[in-house]
Amino acid sequence: MKKQSILVVGAEKGLGQGLTEAYLERGWDVFATHLPGTDTSALLALGEIYPGNLVTGEIDVTNKSHIEPLIGRLHERRFDVIFMVAGIYGPLHQSVLQASDAEFQQIMMTNAFGPARLARHLLPMLEPEGSLVFMSSHRGSIASNTEPGIGLELYRASKAALNMLARCIYREISQGAQTVLSIHPGWVATAMGTLDGTVDAEIDVKTSVNGMISVIEQHRNARSHLFLDYENNSWPW
């Protein structure tokens, strides 16, 4: 039986690192990417625990020039799951009125355009019945944005844009047997989720990761585009 494999884009910390470890524990081959110049000691440690099962590479999803070298490093690999994890919270103010052009460009490039562009380049490496997964957020749901006040409008906009770009990818491949999932991981105790420890999250990394892996397994043959959370609840677009 063919060993299952996953590509995790954005694995140097937080949920990406948690997903990498969890899939290694499950016996998968994992290719994990990290930002150039970032601390990869945790990934290297996992590689020592699971020798031969983990390969790493670097990419900044906002930098187009990084795509071709990554594709070259991936060579002729094929993946059962490609998980686009990379993302940022953006400026603390989260306000369109206060945001500079650079702040808006950074959050949209990192959370939406960059992952979608890279995903399109990676599609030839996704197995014919594979799953392309995007780390979305319930904040990207337009229908569910009924909270009073403005709040998180930059982050919301970036995740809503990601959801739409994911849908565009799905429409392109929808005649085949591949699945696209947009998953809300929950409010997780990561550096991003707690704003570097200044607020409390609702769940830990392991709870989120185990939930997301279960959701992916349940829907790997869905042949559709679904917006779900780590507890397998559907979210309105």
TrEMBL record:
Domain of life, per lineage: Bacteria
Pfam family membership, one: adh_short_C2
Gene Ontology terms, MF aspect: oxidoreductase activity, acting on the CH-OH group of donors, NAD or NADP as acceptor
Name of this protein: SDR family oxidoreductase
Natural source organism: Kosakonia quasisacchari
